[in-house]
What does this fold into?
Amino acid sequence: MIRFENVSKSYKQQKVVSDVSFTINDHELVVLIGPSGCGKTTMLKMINRLTNPTSGRILINEEDIRNRSEVEHRKSIGYVIQSIGLFPHMTIRQNIEIIPRLQGKNKDEILQKSRELMQMVGLDPDLYFDRYPYQLSGGQQQRVGVARAFACDPDIILMDEPFSALDPLTRLQLQDELADLQTKMKKTIVFVTHDMDEAVKIADRICIINEGQIVQYDTVEEIMKHPANEFVAEFVGRNRIWTSPEYIYAKDIMVKNPVCVSPSTSLFRCMERMRMYKVDSLFVVDSEKQLLGLVQAKMIQTQANTSIPVSEIMHKDIDGIGPDTNIVEILQKVSEKGINTIPVVDERHVLVGLITKSSLLTTLSHQYLDTSEVV
Amino acid sequence: MEALRNLFAFMSANSSVLIDKTIEHMQITGTAIGIAILLGVPLGILISYVVPLKKPVIGFANVMQAIPSLALLGFLVPFLGIGRTPAVFAVVVYSLLPILKNTVTGLANVNADTLEAARGIGMTQLQILTRVKIPLALPVIFAGVRISAVTSVGLVTLASFIGAGGLGDIIFAGIRTLNTNQLLAGALVACILALTVDRIGGIIEKLVTPACFKERK
It folds into this structure.
């Protein structure tokens, strides 16, 4: 756990970081993001003491990092910067092994570890070990950079815009690989970027920074759905949610209080209700609002006797979806089953809402028509 | 053609003296360059770290470089007498500036991001110096050594004036006795020596250049 306590940093008169307090949980990937000059890199470099706070303190596992030797402290933290971070005069193997070797670890163990690390980042050790960084592509170099950061088995890894110098395709690929790696390795990663797409893709939590202060520190979903202020909304981009539709849930887009009838209601009364509310189907629920079935206008029209209770003709085997089903899954369901109305039910099978093709259409059209409130 | 034949005849007749003097010449140059490296490189490293020292040290080396070489040799005689010692001293003083300057430049030109990476992954200042800065600065440092070595070969011929020996002895003897063959023999060997030193310097420079700088061109 990394904790910032009232951390400030000034260069001469300029305050770059002002009174920042926040906690980075273990095994989380936290992205520090903000416009250039907002202090995000300074905050990152304070963690491995490349710069020191003017006031306040930083604790790692409740220990003030100033109490630790600078060099030992840095060795316990992986560090990845843009591709030039590799030593150009050393081979790939030397680059990865530099710190373990300086620590005087057993050579065979180091070699085995380096091989594992190379495989972890998807490079064949036999092919690349003896090459120099300039003989590798930018993406490969940065893979080596990541491997080097893991060489001492650190719990914490700091990444300072590691992918920003790469071409878009390689960048996307490395982001995916980092996300995969993180699910396997479960390190605490602090990642600085100015690219919101990158942040959304890899982060567990995003810390949005502006003018040396934290504007919002929250999960990706919360930041997209509930930006703390105009700055965040602007920075995140109002239509951002559409690049990650899996964060849009049934509960966000459903029609609440759908029109219901009890199972004993006669078909005639059902018709009346449909006319009144201008709908073509009704949900049948019991007194506890538990979903029993669905009745559609066309089903009633074929019935001669409209005085029988709705429970006799209603569709009983209807699938409800949970409130946390995301829009992608909903769309899949709609296209698979060709249904117009989907009830949203909670875990006790109580009807809480309704999604129709037209409500889906309205939601989806927001991204093109109306850029204000999305969900 | 006749002149050339005479020259070679002279050279083969006096080959043992020429060889002796060449060795003497090389000894003086070698000693001086050796001392200049041992002095200049550490001093260059020192002033790269202790910034306040940089200006006075470079300034002093600049002033020394500006003194005409013959004048410098003259200055040294009252203090160090005649012979090899003042000659070596003068060559060291002259060689210091290129070595010093190139060491400082070489170290300063190491990519700042590379250094930050080195610091960030937990290398000590000394480890950064020996494993990152010096290896990366070596080609530039050695370019300075090479310049110094070539100029020194020339300077040492002048040092014959204060009795240091070397190929200068043959050249000056030739001038005094108006013996063109003797004069040319000394001059020719001195030239060849300078070119050879430059060539060897070039080879060593290539050897110390990290692979990353070589193939990129």
